[in-house]
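seq/struct pair 1
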Amino acid sequence: MNDQANSVDERYESAPAALSSWSRHDTTWMLGLFGTAIGAGTLFLPINAGLGGFWPLLILALLAFPMTFYAHRGLTRFVLSGRDGADITEVVEEHFGLTAGALITLLYFFAIFPILLIYSVALTNTVGSFLEHQLHIAPPPRAILSLALILGLLAVVRCGEQLIVKAMSMLVYPFIVALALLAVYLIPHWNGGILATASSVPEPSALLHTLWLAIPVMVFSFNHSPIISAFAVDQKRRYGVHAEERSSQILSRAHLLMVVMVLFFVFSCVLTLSPAQLAEAKAQNLSILSYLANHFSNPTIAFAAPLIAFVAISKSFLGHYIGASEGLKGLIIKSGRKPGAKALDRMTAAFMLVVCWLVATLNPSILGMIETLGGPIIAALLFLMPMYAIRRVPSMRQYSGKLSNVFVTLVGLVSISALIYSLAS
């Protein structure tokens, strides 16, 4: 017993030395957080952020880093406040009880599953547009195209979670490089675009209204909360009592990298396209890459942009399918039913296939779904739950009294109120 205690003490005592130098492990997590956040949601951010005009976009750009960093740091601290090795659901049960743990499982499912539906629609639109505009082939009926695409992705899912994770890790970095190169490619095509709206400052009420509805999309575009639990558990295992300090360093660098990268891409797009063209992209329910492919006569970008979008959306679909299926299985088990493992897999896959196919066929507004479903539910878990825990959990009261807590709470409330407004209007 004493030997075990001594080994733990030695691990904790060695942590300060480890903190003094940045390791490959830290870089891997920094890029992992970056890769998780930068996905298909980024492809719709220029449309929604640019539609409001120059001044709302500038304000959103200034808010991007603090909004992303403080929220994910709060969620990381929340997971770190639990016992060693506990994931986010277990920490919720530890602090708030079994009922709250079941509620969080439910919320996670409803935070992830709508995003899966968004990607089903986006993938169908991307492939349909590519067939029509780049290959000059009449796409098959939407119901058939969406069914074929979703069945193809579910076939990959059947190969197992390890293969999915490996495939995703291989796709993340080429996507990031391609996105950066595309943003650079657009520079000679900058024509001012959104700068035409800079000369007139909008009325305060109109400005606030635009920001209000745009923030949920920003939350969605920079969100990487699904990986935060695993990130926090690994940092606690590696750095012990110093995990919070190292986690904050990794998060700050990852968020700085992603904000600079995404905002460069966003500004490059909105300086190339006019607000009217961005509105047209939204009306066509296309990602910014598919619209750019149709906009330019350059054959390289015409073919490359939809393929980049296809990779990004497929990667995001596979990643979110894992979380959504796990959440659905958890809900089925917690309801009292205990089917066999194979039966549970079949039930989950059948449910996902039918609902994703129906939504992809109906083709609802992607940005509308992000605004009303994805962003606000994520905000409740990412922004509000950790701030509530700071007031209620003794081990988290050390973080109370900070101005950043007020900022995070306000952003969370704004995102959720946007949902209520969108549903009521």
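seq/struct pair 2
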Amino acid sequence: MKCYIETLGCARNQVDSEVLAGHLSLAGFPGANHPEDAEIIVINTCGFIQDAIDDSIDTILELAAYRREGPCRYLIVAGCLPERFQEDILESLPEVDFFAGTAAYFSILSFLEKGEAFTRERGNIFCPDPVSAPLQTAEMERHRAQVHTAYLKVAEGCSRHCTYCIIPMLRGVQRSRSLEDIVAEARNLTESGVRELVLVAQETTDWGRDLAGGRTICDLVRAVCDAVGDGVWVRLLYGHPESLSDDLLDLMAEKKNFCSYLDLPVQHASDTVLRRMGRHYTRRDLHSLFSRIREKVEDVVLRTTLITGFPGESEEDFQELLAFVRTMRFDHLGVFTYSDMEDLPSHHLKNHVPPELAAARRDAVMEVQARISWEKNRQRLGKRYPVLIEKLSEGELAEGRTPFQAPEVDGITYVDGSGFQVGDVVLLEITDAFDYDLAGNVVDGWEV
């Protein structure tokens, strides 16, 4: 039987799906590229915020049509949605044959092999304690859709306690993979043709804090950079402002293949809101942090994410946030509106902000950021950058990314030229700049 996996949500979910696909394939359940060709459909869901929950449910209902009318024999829902709503999900989604929580991905194989015997033993939903899940290892088979870029998950879970976040409940406390195992996987991925490794966790810069030996994220990044060589970009996503060290910044300035790119979600800039969020830094701390980053790393590119409409956010708090965005001039920035649910500590805070006002504030921030992004992109005109080719179009046009554009979350760079393949890295001179995207011509002798 062929298996189709639909992945929703974050990069960590993508890694889980790739490991699951490898696990099932080795057991005799090869992958299918389209749901209409599969006897098994697995939906790896996200349950982080309301929009993600809605998207997960819509996807389940859409793909359930293949269970009713197509070749699909088993419809399976995995990941964060069943983990978060395990008490109610069985009655809400009777179309689903089996639900597997965040620690139960490998139980899917047992379900497929045992069928009704498994459901009699376990029931139609299996959500063991998240910390009981085995950590991914370099030896595990991964089936990746992309050859040139790969996410490298360095830890599972989170030990912080932000009041708006459900991740510790869904994934458990932080559990870091060993440095040696991560480096081994980095080598494996590079040998398979990967040109960009993206290190991810819930709080990537917290890696190693739960391990004996005193190793830090700086030690890990150095080891990965050395193992894969200068021809492979190493990128770090999802850092935390409190665990970003000067040592890591010095390494970024030193290592040619460590992208001068930092993604540090700060969430807000009002001290009052930050305290209510459970974030243990102030606006002054953030100003100091970003000044230090820019001083230590020449041409560093900064990305952050923010939340508008958090309970208790006043107009004064919001104006502080707007002023912060104008002052910091981030290269990339995303904004979410606060998503409330009863299982969040922040649900019990006073003075909830109406959703319409939260959305208006989000739009106001993004309007400011669009102008900043356009101005920063204009400053790149005439400059030359390496670009990783990701997509070929008809004619002499391709799409790619520079080292200062992370996959899926930042803009893209249009490449005018031909004669290259997906996964090539070319040298580009920027000729056009837009709000979030760039375009340019390949420089003679384009292969980097």
